[in-house]
Specification:
It is a single chain. By secondary structure, this protein is an alpha+beta fold. It has 2 domains: 173 residues, Alpha-Beta Plaits (2-Layer Sandwich); 105 residues, Tumour Suppressor Smad4 (Sandwich). 24% of the residues lie in helices and 40% in strands. Strands 1, 2, 3, 4, 5, 6, 7 and 8 form an 8-stranded mixed beta sheet that branches. A 6-stranded antiparallel beta sheet has the order 10-9-19-18-15-16, with no helix packed on it. Strand 9 and strand 10 form a beta hairpin. Helix 2 packs antiparallel against helix 3. It is globular, with a radius of gyration of 20 Å. About 4% of the residues have low confidence.
């Protein structure tokens, strides 16, 4: 049986109060509602280059290659579940816990210290809350690290010392209460138009993620030797369009105003208009470039 030890972000997401939901709706309707929620979580995992390990009752266990990817997925999970409620429906709430550390991958499952810590963290989380550890926060990019706050210390089975627990602040009303941290009000009319060859794609409040890469599952497929399978992602987040590189060769940006950027596992705020190139410098003469236009 093949085993391999690696470092991963382990994320658990559970539907909060599902027992009560079954009492209110009955088995059939409650199961339909929870299945829809689990489908949303599964799609968010896919969009953020994660792996669904298994469903556990009314929750999921997943892994991500980086702390950033896991926190971004947790953020989108909370927003997506909160938004998925029709008139007259009971809204669902989830709790999320995650930790980045050493784990053992075996036959499609994951074991080890990181799994134990993540399971403990999700058990501490409340509905509509995302919790993680200091070890994970220290690995986050500055933008994401700024949206966390220390909340507690907790004992974990098998560890002599307590661990520091941090909350990831994803709700706008909570972010605005954090001292010294201000965010722009999201503009639901904002649009980011993307064009690659003859393919157009729009990122907006209602369609907040676009994936780019060589793999056929991407929204924009770029069949270039220097493009990774899942090369980059663009997210509409808090009124901004964020380009996130997750590739081997990096992502280049050239704006129409002459600003240049080279990203390696980093983020960049797209403004105005310009072009994005995968694995090679962007230029007006290049053919394999993605053109973008931000519209307020």
């Amino acid at each position: 049986m093949e085993q391999s030890a690696t470092s991963l972000a382990i994320l658990f997401a559970d539907i909060s109060g599902s027992t009560r939901l079954y009492e209110l709706l009955g088995d059939v309707r409650a199961r339909e509602r929870t299945s829809r929620c689990l489908a949303i979580l599964t799609e968010v995992i896919r969009q953020h280059d994660g792996t669904l390990i298994k469903t556990i009752g009314d929750g999921v266990m997943s892994t991500f290659p980086s702390a950033d990817a896991a926190v971004q997925a947790a953020w989108v999970m909370q927003e997506s579940v909160a938004a998925d409620v029709a008139p007259g429906e009971i809204s669902l709430e989830i709790r999320v816990g995650l930790h980045y550390g050493s784990a053992l991958v075996e036959s499609g499952d994951v074991f080890g210290d990181a799994v134990n810590v993540a399971a403990r963290i999700v058990a501490l989380a409340k509905a509509r809350q995302v919790l993680t550890t200091r070890q994970t926060v220290e690995l986050l990019s500055p933008v994401l690290r700024a949206s966390t706050r220390h909340t507690d210390r907790a004992a974990v089975k098998g560890k002599q010392e307590e661990i520091d627990v941090f909350e990831v602040i994803w709700r706008e009303e909570d972010l605005t209460r954090m001292e010294g941290y201000k965010i722009p009000s999201p503009d639901s009319q904002a649009r980011l138009q993307l064009r690659f060859g003859e393919k157009d794609f729009e990122v907006s409040h209602s369609r907040p993620v676009a994936t780019i890469g060589r793999g056929q599952q991407n929204d924009l497929v770029v069949l270039d030797a220097l493009a990774s399978r899942m090369h980059a992602r663009i997210e509409y987040r808090r009124g901004k369009f964020i380009l996130l590189d997750q590739s081997t060769n990096g992502t280049y940006v050239l704006t129409d105003e002459g600003e240049k950027a080279y990203l390696r596992r980093e983020e960049f705020v797209l403004r105005g208009s310009g072009m994005i190139s995968l694995g090679r410098a962007a230029s007006a003469e290049a053919t394999e470039v993605i053109h973008f236009v931000c519209q307020a």
